[in-house]
Specification:
Blueprint: H1 9-20, E1 24-30, E2 33-38, H2 39-55, E3 63-67, H3 72-83, E4 87-91, H4 97-107, E5 109-114, H5 117-126, E6 135-138, E7 149-151, H6 152-161, H7 165-174, E8 180-185, E9 195-199, H8 200-211, E10 229-232, H9 239-252, E11 255-258, H10 265-272, E12 276-279, H11 281-296, H12 300-321, H13 328-349, E13 356-359, H14 366-374, E14 379-384, E15 391-394, E16 407-408, E17 413-416, E18 421-425, E19 432-433, H15 437-442, E20 450-458, E21 464-469, E22 474-475, E23 481-482, H16 484-491, E24 497-503, E25 510-516, H17 518-527, H18 535-539, H19 542-555, E26 565-570, H20 590-596, H21 598-605
Parallel strand pairs: 1-11, 3-4, 3-5, 5-6, 6-7, 10-11, 10-12, 12-13, 13-14, 25-26
Antiparallel strand pairs: 1-2, 8-9, 9-19, 14-15, 15-16, 17-18, 18-20, 20-21, 22-23, 24-25
Length: 611
């Protein structure tokens, strides 16, 4: 046992499985219907898969990869790997064969769990370059499966036939807090990805210190428990979903439903009606824009009712943020707004049971946060990195401060360097980068604080406000340092702008690449009788460019003259993960965007000498 109770999340799972038995651990959709997997059934499979790995010679500390989309089998594989003292190595489901090869080779993975036949084929394509790999296990039935590749069903059957419960228990109980649990590879936008070494203590301390703060401030009672339902859709290969979704769900004894994919998210929400969601700002941005779009097309009376409701939402902000009961005539007006608008909206979105929405991975704009919080959604924005397992800060249910990532969790020290960088020290900070001592040294200050790479301030309440990333800072030709994130978040509040990337490093002024919100632009064009047959027609139209110009100016009016956007270029296609501009957690890859649109960028600076 440790100061946090159990020493590992694998042991916490065992404890919960024994207690919760036939209660649903997970839910997945197949053939149009949702199916539950009980804690007992899950635990039986974890044991059998663990027995299989032991029989295959996987020793303590050996690496086993998981190359798959989110599904209950992902949880099963990770729990089995960790239970026998081995180290899991997640690979993003969207990675190419070459990206997977680098991770499998660098991590010395001996077995790879592949989610689908496509994932299996990506590994098979590079298998000849992986002499240390013993085998591949594919979760799905695979038609073109060569000899030596097992299905999960076959691996489970082999494990059951070689039952080794005493060895499984011995291994589980012998794991030390400092032992390695996982290698999570960073995105690698500036070279090869680095393997972040996270220990069992990193995870157990992070879950404990996060959930100890998820309590009723008056009674001290835990706010998450066995009646909660999580919807898993952020990649499990990312530490936000790994810790805040997967492990927090286990600790709470909650059920996890696995979304089919991001394109079916709204449908899955309405089917599952989760009580907890772990998300990134892009999801809130899309929901907010979708709601505003529908309202703009509604009849006049409905618009007035919505306007009334949003005025009540604005007044409701302090009540949600500080858990203050509504009273008197305001309570009556808010309840009316809830009956007429909020409750119907929540039901339509499948969020009528949603108790907590966690936001992380990138800064959530204050506009988006306040829009949802005012309606009664408890959005708890937090902060962290893969290297911090990830949680270092978050807004508490009883103390929400929109525009900040909240206060530090227990045992976590934060300070701001002379250069304005946020520094972190605590039990959740990684053991280092795998096989990369130089990068590990560079990641820490001489007194042991982790360098986050984020620029931040700490306010009078101890809440941290992230103002930008050091590597994203634009240094103009005039020597002015500008954080593009603040400008971009402000401009994205426009209903006509979907995505934006600000350019200006070593230039005399700022410019921007803009992806319009085409549904709104199309409506506006129709209202103005502007003819168009395509997105290309819209972005080349002078009136639409004037509209976007006005929106940019409107939403940047509060910024200094040097931070104004002098020129912009409209783009005809949304940035997505599949087209390469977004990471799996929906963050913009600035270098990719800059390289892809070099021609458009140079056109904005051509002929004026960067005046």
């Amino acid at each position: 046992m440790s100061q946090y109770g159990e020493k590992t999340m694998a042991a916490v799972f065992q404890k919960q499985a024994e207690k919760l038995g036939e209660k649903a651990y997970a839910s997945y959709k197949k053939d149009g219907a949702w199916h539950d997997v009980s804690w007992k059934a899950m635990n039986d499979m974890v044991h059998n898969l663990g027995y299989y790995l032991i029989a295959e010679g996987i020793a303590k500390g050996d690496k086993v990869a998981i190359f798959s989309q989110n599904r209950y089998e992902w949880h099963m594989a990770a729990l089995a790997i960790n239970s026998i003292g081995a180290v899991d190595v997640p690979i993003y489901a969207t990675n190419s064969s070459e990206e997977a090869e680098y991770i499998l080779s660098n991590s010395d993975s001996k077995i790879c769990f592949a989610g689908t036949e496509d994932h299996m084929n990506k590994v098979l394509k590079v298998r000849s370059k992986l002499p240390g790999m013993k085998g591949i296990v594919v979760f799905d039935e695979a038609s073109g499966r060569p000899e030596g590749v097992l299905t999960l069903a076959e691996a489970l059957a082999r494990g059951e036939s070689k039952k080794a419960k005493d060895e499984f228990d011995r291994r589980l109980n012998s794991i030390q807090p400092s032992d390695l649990a996982t290698l999570i590879y960073t995105s690698g936008t500036t070279g090869n990805p680095k393997g972040v070494m996270l220990t069992h203590n990193n995870f157990i301390s992070n879950v404990y210190n996060s959930l100890i703060e998820m309590k009723d401030i008056k009674t001290g009672k835990a706010l998450l428990g066995p009646d909660d339902v999580f919807l898993s859709f952020l990649p499990l290969s990312h530490s936000l979903e790994r810790t805040s979704g997967f492990y927090n769900g286990i600790w709470a004894g909650a059920k996890t439903a696995f979304a089919e994919d991001i394109s079916k998210l709204v449908e899955n929400f309405t089917e599952i009606r989760p009580t907890v969601m772990i998300s990134v700002p892009r999801i809130y941005e899309k929901l907010h824009a979708g709601i505003i779009s529908k309202v703009s097309a509604a009849p006049g009376l409905k618009k007035k009712i919505f306007g009334f409701a949003m005025r009540q939402a604005a007044k409701n902000l302090p009540h949600v943020c500080r858990d203050i009961p509504r009273k008197g005539f305001f309570a009556f007006k808010y309840n009316l707004a809830d009956k007429l608008v909020f409750s119907k909206l929540k039901h339509t979105l499948g969020m009528d049971r949603l108790r907590f929405a966690i936001s992380g991975g990138a800064p959530l704009s204050q506009t988006d946060a306040e829009f949802f919080i005012g309606m009664g959604f408890k959005i708890l924005e937090g902060f962290g990195l893969t290297e911090t397992t990830p949680v270092t800060n978050f807004n508490r249910p009883w103390f929400i401060k929109p525009g900040t990532v909240g206060q530090a969790i227990p045992e976590t020290e934060i300070k701001i360097s002379d250069e304005g960088e946020l520094l972190i020290r605590g039990p959740q900070v990684m053991a280092g980068y795998y096989k990369n001592e130089e990068a590990t040294r560079e990641a820490f200050t001489p007194d042991g604080f982790f360098r986050t790479g984020d620029i931040a301030i700490v306010d009078e309440d101890g809440c941290v406000k992230i103002t930008g990333r050091i590597k994203d800072i634009i240094v103009t030709a005039g020597g002015k340092n500008i954080s593009p994130q603040n400008l971009e978040n402000s401009i994205k509040a426009s209903p006509y702008i979907e995505q934006i990337g600000i350019i200006g490093d070593k230039r005399k002024y700022l410019s921007a690449l803009v992806v319009p919100a085409f549904p709104e632009i199309e409506k506006w064009a129709k209202d103005k009788n502007i003819p168009f047959n395509s997105h290309a027609d819209l972005i080349s139209n002078e009136e639409i460019n004037k509209l976007v110009r006005g929106e940019i100016d409107k939403y940047t009016s509060q910024f200094a003259r040097v931070e104004q956007i002098r020129k912009f270029k409209l783009l005809d296609a949304e940035w997505t993960q599949s087209t390469g501009e977004l990471t799996p957690t929906q963050k913009v890859k600035r270098k990719v965007v800059s390289a892809k649109y070099t021609k458009e960028i140079e056109e904005m600076y051509a002929g004026d000498g960067d005046e």
